[in-house]
Amino acid sequence: MVLHDIQRYHRHLELRNDNNMRKILLAVIAIALITPVQPLRATCGGGGGGGMGGTMPRSSMSGRNGQPQPEVYVVPWKIVAPGDKPLSTPIVAMWFPADAGESDQAELNVSRMLTLYSAQCVGLQLVKPDDAGTIARFDVAAKRPIVLLVVDGKVVDHAGPTGRAITVSSVENMIHHELFQRETALDSLMETAKNQSSTDKEAAIATYQKVWQQRCLAPRQGRDAQKALKRLGVTVKDAELRSTDPDLSLEMNARITQAMRDAFRAELAADYRNAGALYRAAAAIDPADPVPSRFLGELYRHHTGEWVLARQTFEHLLTMQPDPLSRAVALHGLGKMTIHMGDSAKGLALFEQSIDAYPLALTYRNLAVYWNSERQRTKADQYVQKALAIDPHDPFNLIFAATYLADSGRKEEALRIAKENEGELAASYNLAAIYALLGNKGKAMELLKRHFYQYERYDDVRAMEMWEARVDYVFASMKDDRAFVELTRMAR
User: Fold this and answer.
1) Closest to 305 (Cα-Cα) out of 458, 80, 158, 420
2) Domain 1-38+245-322 has CATH 1.10.10
3) Most CB atoms within 10 A, among 197, 253, 298, 350?
4) Residue 279 and residue 297: Cα distance in Å, rounded?
């Protein structure tokens, strides 16, 4: 998709949004008229969080005058816990930090190139210092920090104390070299198949299929093989094979990274309309980059409530051969909206697909919300703990967990966390839930009002969140209070 195509695509989504939303509302009204009243069912909203591309913001000191710069291209390093199945991608970069603190601070956490390489079946594995089995298997206990490049199960290169320095560029270059070698070999196979096609059709088909099998690693050669096979009467399809490849030049990396930082800064300042315009502009700079669409879709879903646009943006993203993090955010967003529209089974299946792509605290929190509303507290608590394990210091995770502490009788601990984090505007709903469970209705109402009228900016979102509060059992003690009914009068 060239620049004017992506701009036309987003204009098309915006023009369709009003008509589609009216159709959805008419359908909902019709269903309401013919459907008998049912008991309250499980939902998945309110306190789960979202926005910011689906992840908590990370900053560097690369901004002007040494000021923190919001980072967008957070590398989707994946932790494989002992007992979990290892990454099955043919190329894996394995990062062995010396300690946990290093993995939080290292420059390897931010890179557009590494993020987009991960979309090409390049696994990025972070091996925690306590993963003794993996450390012993690769014999790196005394060599950390080190990054190994493992190709088809064998270590072929490394960056570390005994070789080149560990920098983001050194890791990028290792992967780039391996991909270049693969692409060169596949180009040679394509030439062989072309020559075979005039004398031995079946041999040509077999050679082209070898190239096709590596389409994730080499999308360009995969597309060429697909076209060649079609000419020979063999049709192969892959809905997720991207139609164009992202531009990974240094100039493009700098340009789109700055554009995304500007957009993210607007989102963090709650200037959502401007953020949306800036994300759309960034998407037009390189239409094959899935990251701008990830942030834009999450903005539509969480902040502006434009769910038709959110769904269409996420569905478009999934056709772009996205990186694991972008795939996970899109699947989570589709899952959450699907549950809200009444199809819990399909929504939960999308959540599981999201976790399989890349585990997000956001997805685990919303699974906890769902199962807690089903009164399966043990299951809900397991997901709370998984969210905390991803980032035990994230204030939103802590506040979210505190709602379960309040609900399980650990009131003093829950109250302490609520007081320590009361300034977190984005967590106002969960803070209100804590105080409601502790019996402080006045404080709960104050924080709910803050959530609806300071944090949320659009009536479509307020209407959904107010409905969520009315059916959320944590506010059951308040549901008949006149003040609560009045506060949530826009519930839809």
Assistant:
1) 458
2) no
3) 298
4) 10
Q: Using an 8 Å Cβ cutoff, are 168 and 112 in contact?
A: no
Written as one string, the DSSP assignment of 460-474 is: HHHHHHHHHHHH-GG
Nearest to 294 by CA among 52, 70, 120, 58: 52
The pLDDT score that the predictor gives to residue 67 is 57
Instruction: Enter the tokens of residue 352.
Output: 């599981």
What is the CATH architecture assignment of 78-166?
3-Layer(aba) Sandwich (3.40)
Cα four-point dihedral sign 151, 156, 160, 166:
negative
- How far apart CA 469 and CA 47 sit, in angstroms, is 10
| Exposed / middle / buried, residue 88 (Cβ in 10 Å: 0-12, 13-18, 19+) | exposed
Measured between alpha carbons, how far is residue 224 from residues 72, 179, 217, 244, 422 in Å?
A: 32, 17, 14, 12, 56
Q: Is 457 left (phi over 0), alpha (psi -120 to 50) or beta?
A: alpha
Tell me the average pLDDT across 248-267. Answer: 96
Amino acid 150 reads V
Helix (H) or strand (E) holding 71: strand 69-71
- Residue 448 has a pLDDT of 96
Share of the chain above pLDDT 90, in %: 70
The tokens of 290 are what? 């899935």
CA–CA dist 149, 157 (Å, integer): 5
pLDDT digits (tens, 9 = 90+) for 267-290: 999 999 999 999 999 999 999 999
What are the tokens at 272?
């959502």
Please report, for the chain, the start and end positions of each structural domain, with discontinuous segments joined by +: 1-38+245-322, 78-166, 184-231
